[in-house]
Write a structure and sequence with these properties.
Elements lengths: L5 E4 L6 E2 L1 H18 L8 H8 L4 H12 L5 H22 L1 E2 L3 H11 L3 E6 L3 H10 L11 E3 L14 H10 L6 E5 L2 H9 L3 E5 L6 H14 L3 E3 L5 H9 L3 H7 L1
Length: 253
């Protein structure tokens, strides 16, 4: 049976209901970029979420450049990244809320002192810290235990690249076999799975039971070990993972 000592939490729509707020700002900038290149297509925040959920702005802009066959010069690209970060942080500081039940469960996990906790996100570090501070979760995570694919790595990357999970494992001195990741998106789950972690697929931020089931099925197909619909199920999900038979543990890593 695995001996779990570390929990890595994704942030956006896993701990904090932030994706919709973030993608509102992303859509404004994406449309500005498309217009500057003479491209007629336009995006709403919800369309961007559908196409790019789990990616950070760098990853999203890379995908748009490939889709529409244009190139942003490095300085222009970095300028848009900074503008997006500022816009998103302003939205988050004004409106962000925790995922339902997340704060209550974090309080229990933190008080029990059974696991060490970290945040592992694709989003920029400033944005992640602004998110968890806004909803009162920063007290559960040391600031040096918040890892960002956009800010902690050189060069920056985005999930589903496993680099940020591998980086976090190295920094906290843990093995993948003793670590569980909680993820809500395909990009995030793939990143953790490719790094060899156990994965809880959190689907509670999706709007309807139908969407929750659809996403749960997709993440399970990718290799997530168990689906969590509500944060109140966290303890039972951990119990399931910690009781996996040895042969199943080996085949999942």
């Amino acid at each position: 049976m695995p001996q779990i000592t570390e929990i890595f939490f994704d942030c956006d729509n896993t701990l904090v209901l932030s994706e919709e707020l973030a993608f509102e700002a992303c859509a404004e900038l994406a449309n500005e970029i498309l217009e500057s290149r003479g491209i007629a297509d336009r995006y709403t925040g919800s369309q961007l979420i559908k196409d790019f959920v789990g990616q950070n702005f760098r990853g999203m802009m890379g995908s748009l450049q490939k889709k529409y066959n244009f190139t942003l010069e490095k300085d222009e690209f970095n300028g848009y990244v900074k503008k997006e970060e500022d816009k998103v942080i302003a939205n988050l500081e004004a409106k962000a809320k925790p995922c339902v039940g997340a704060n209550e469960e974090l309080e229990k996990i933190f008080a029990a002192k059974k696991y060490h906790l970290a945040v592992v996100s694709s989003s920029a570090l400033r944005r992640v810290i602004a998110s968890i501070k806004k909803v009162g979760q920063d007290k559960y995570f040391d600031e040096n235990m918040v890892f960002s694919a956009a800010s902690s790595l050189d060069p920056p990357t985005s999930k589903p690249d496993p680099a940020i999970y591998l980086h976090a494992l190295e920094k906290v001195g843990k093995k993948a076999s003793e670590t569980v990741a909680v993820e809500d998106s395909k990009s995030g789950a793939l990143s953790a799975i490719r790094a060899g972690l156990f994965v809880i697929a959190y689907v509670g931020a999706y709007d309807t039971p139908e969407l929750q089931k659809e996403m749960g099925d997709k993440l399970t197909e990718l290799g997530a070990h168990i689906v969590m619909t509500n944060w109140s199920e966290f303890e039972s999900c951990m119990d399931y993972i910690e009781k996996l038979p040895a042969k199943e543990v080996q085949s999942s890593l």
